[in-house]
Amino acid sequence: MLDELSEAELRVVRYLPSNLKAPEIAAGLFVSPNTVRTHLRHIYSKLDVHSRREAVDRARELRLVSPRGR
Predict the structure, then answer these.
(1) Cα–Cα distance for residue pair 40/29, rounded to 1 Å
(2) Rounded to an integer, what distance in angstroms lies between the CA atom of residue 68 and that of residue 20?
(3) I want to staple 26 with a disulfide (CB 3.0 to 4.6 A). Which of 17, 30, 33, 55 is the partner?
(4) Helix runs in 1-70, H state only
């Protein structure tokens, strides 16, 4: 069973399709880049993926982010 993402992790997931780097995501969320990187590690683990592309694909499957092209 997939571990549920926290609200903070979901906020980071929504930025993943944008291709922004961690410092840019951090600025948008008003947190530190290290916080974003920690959330990314947790997201990858919970989604059982190893890359940002896999995380985006998995998040789309789970309807956590918009489908491609929207």
Answers:
(1) 14
(2) 16
(3) 33
(4) 7-13, 22-29, 33-47, 52-61
